[in-house]
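Appendix C reproduces, verbatim, an entry submitted by the partner laboratory led by Prof. M.T., so that reviewers can inspect both the input and the predicted structure.
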Amino acid sequence: MNQETEKTSTRLAAILADYLANNWTESSPDRRTITATTNMVTELQLDSFQVMEFMLEVEDHFDVAIDLESLANIQTITDLATVVIAARNDP
């Protein structure tokens, strides 16, 4: 993982942790530990509505648009970081 991906993954993990703290009160605290390899669907069991809400927060934070085709391939925080970086670099 390069430095930009690592930095973006760290920021995304923090955004997701904040999102979960504010919107997901039924989970135990140990399940809220987010890392670059955290799978948002299988480990955190986010439903499609939660994923879309989180994606809107990510888009707002990084001022990017994430297309649905890219969204379908995102499972981990690192996957999302790669998509965010590509969207930021897209003219």
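The chain is about 60% helix and 0% strand. Additional entries are available on request from the coordinating office.
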